[in-house]
Amino acid sequence: MTDPRILVIGDSYMSADVFTSAFTARGLKADAATLTLADATWPTGAIREFEGDPAEVAKLAAGYDVVAFHAAPVTAEVIEALPELKLLGCARGGPVNVDVAAAKARNVRVTTTPGKNAEAVADLTIGFLISLVRNVPASLRDVDDRVAQGLPLAESTFEGARWFGREIAGTRLGLIGYGNVARLVAARAHALGATVIAYDPFVDPSTVTDTTIVSELDALLAGSDVVSVHARATAENRHMIGAAQIATMPAGSFLINTARESLVDEQAMLDALTRGHLSGVALDVNEPDGPWRELVAQPNVILTPHLAGATHETLARGADMLAAEIQAFRDGADLRWER
């Protein structure tokens, strides 16, 4: 086909420059625009987790065959207003800000960038793992308290006796879900000497050679010192880690969630923390209506603002993945990540 007219739309998270650099490197010519409305909204309905005004997107994308973006809202109305549109490239693992059904109804193809942030999320997960088993959260709060009280910081080796932890070598790490991120976590954990097991009913154990796949979630929970959640969130697995599952974990174990907030019942987790059944938790995601104020107050909790995938490499990787897809589209080849 003739070269398609391509527009890239930047936002406050992923700039247009990131897109254009990747597209230029692959010999693709693209016009660039940036959303002027940067207030994030989280509505219910066909799309969510977007940034910007659908009317602005429709205006910017008029006349283009291909539109590449990260957070732009692409509603049914936007798609209907763009009769020339043939391909939407969304630089996310799941195109939650695109009305995919409306796109298909108008023969507009949709492609995404699954796994673009897997390396970054795996890195943070290992960082959480080390921090939890070495009592870093509580020790850092102790430093903050000393500074607030005008006390000198500890210099003696004997002060460390308050924060005895454990080494990664020999630690039993249980991974719930064994997709892109979990496999990278497993490789990193193996290199540090951990014993790794995983639970994923959608993975054939015979295809995995470096990690033991268990057939029951309870078996993983009971046999892990640290449990890290990496499952894909669905309506069916909401709160798959609840009070009963946490009770199955050994006393003094740890819980990490860098996947989706809906997978863990945070009230049950908080209860287990305050009872001492859990020795610590690390969350990069949390339920908006969960007990986050109480969680933040716990000395053995790490709570970060959904930054697991926020690296420059993640952005560049996502842009390059979309550029490769648009190349394939231009050349009449199959799209690797089409929805």
UniProtKB/TrEMBL annotation:
PANTHER family: D-ISOMER SPECIFIC 2-HYDROXYACID DEHYDROGENASE CATALYTIC DOMAIN-CONTAINING PROTEIN-RELATED, D-ISOMER SPECIFIC 2-HYDROXYACID DEHYDROGENASE FAMILY PROTEIN (AFU_ORTHOLOGUE AFUA_1G13630). Residues 128-308 form the D-isomer specific 2-hydroxyacid dehydrogenase NAD-binding domain. It holds the Pfam family 2-Hacid_dh. Belongs to the D-isomer specific 2-hydroxyacid dehydrogenase family. The keyword NAD applies. SUPFAM superfamilies: Formate/glycerate dehydrogenase catalytic domain-like, NAD(P)-binding Rossmann-fold domains. Keywords: NAD, Oxidoreductase. Signal peptide: none annotated. This is NAD(P)-dependent oxidoreductase. Residues 52-336 form the D-isomer specific 2-hydroxyacid dehydrogenase catalytic domain.
